[in-house]
Task: structure prediction
Amino acid sequence: MQSVETYREAFVKYLENQSPVKEPKNLYEPIEYILNLGGKRLRPVLTLMASDMFGGEYQKALPAAMAVEVFHNFSLVHDDIMDDAPLRRGKKTVHEKWDINTGILSGDAMLINAYQFLEAYEGESLTQLFALFSKTAIEVCEGQQYDVDFENRTDVTLPEYLKMIEFKTSVLVAAALKMGAIVAGASVANQDLIYEFGRNLGLAFQLQDDYLDAFGDPKTFGKQVGGDIIENKKTFLYLKALELGAGEDTKTLLELYQGNTKDSATKVALVKEIFERSGSKAATEDEVENYTNRAFESLLKIDAAEEAKQVFKAFAAQLMNRES
Result:
């Protein structure tokens, strides 16, 4: 196994050599723009790591890693349009820099382009990659629709919420890992185990994101603490508080989330008090630990070198350590 930075550098170099700018420029320039905004490149790095773990030459997984990254960025372009978001990674979003029609069309082209990168493979590997990629793509769309639906629903359940974040976030992490395993020719059992590792780690990461949005350190979290509360997002913390809370707290929480409230700072403070008092804060911490442990259990069962598994464990631990 290489260092995580080695995989990242290899992927970035590969990406830079795939410049899509050609005619018509108004279709391809936005694609180059979004792909070069940076980011951690988490998903493609995981594809390369998984391929290496199972004895493959990680360089052969670069087209699969690129397919994952292009798909991920396609989803961001369209999500930004749906959210009317002005910024992405500190820069103008595609639809703000160009226009909405350009954002839709360039996003569509990226989705098609993602599949084109998988054409680098053949035989059974190609069949498996296409099937997994298509399954994941439709699940991500389903997750986004669930998220949109939840904005206007008052009866969202915890199982529904967990399904939403699984589809919207964690299945692409899981697929990125499994794609690397497929390229390396790993056994079906190992492919499934690395997928479960990624799925559970993705769930733990998103639940921790919910938690840190309310209880993270504003100096180190990287975004506004309390943002989900201000936007009335029905996160795990919120839903668990409704499930566990006493009558008066439940009534207050529902009123606060209806927007009939005081200033934002007061609202955030009151909601956080209810999260703590109800036991929702502690329950969310337990759930993060639960999914993290499930991920590590899957990793333990994988038939691969212990050294490689330790690299993954260290990577996961670093990913989850976002409180400082």
